[in-house]
Amino acid sequence: MNILFVCSRNKWRSLTAETIFKNHSDHQIKSAGTEPSARIKINAKLIIWADLIFMMEKKHRQRMSERFPEETDGKEIIILRIPDDYQYMDEDLIEELTSKVSDYL
């Protein structure tokens, strides 16, 4: 399964998720951001590639759906409700990601 993690700038939350889940044997993992300043910007190709998309906040889903309505139509999208309160690889962030995502993996 192809899984995409999305946050604002793809520097802390979604990049942490990609890092901790990338070695999962059954899944391909990528991450992106919704802001113009994102390390890797969300695009149609990534959305089409993904079988499952995890959004850190509701606003990320709104931005993605507004910019890519056709590509997001029918996609399985999960909002994790993880605020932008963490640094890259923060222990609390890893714990929160693991607990919220594990049921889907």
How are the strands of the largest sheet arranged? Answer: 2-1-3-4
Q: Please state the second-level CATH architecture.
A: 3-Layer(aba) Sandwich
Q: What is the CATH fold-level name?
A: Rossmann fold
The structure class reads alpha/beta
Largest sheet: 4 strands, parallel
Q: Helical content, roughly?
A: 25-40%
CA-to-CA gap between the ends? 9 Å
> What is the CATH domain class?
Alpha Beta
Q: Average pLDDT across residues?
A: 96
Instruction: Output the number of helix runs.
Output: 5
Gross geometry: globular
Low-pLDDT runs of 5+ residues are: none
CATH superfamily membership, which one?
Answer: Response regulator
Strand content: 15-25%
User: What radius of gyration results from the CA coordinates?
Assistant: 12 Å
- Tally of distinct domains: 1
Q: Oligomer, anyone?
A: single chain
Beta strands, count: 4
Helix and strand element order: EHEHEHHEH
List the defining traits of the structure above.
four-stranded parallel β-sheet, Rossmann fold, single chain, alpha/beta
Give a description of the structure:
The protein is an alpha/beta fold. The chain is 38% helix and 19% strand. It contains five helices and four strands; from the N terminus they run E-H-E-H-E-H-H-E-H. The protein has a four-stranded parallel β-sheet. Strand 1 (2-7), helix 1 (13-21) and strand 2 (28-33) form a beta-alpha-beta unit. Helix 1 packs across helix 5 (91-101).
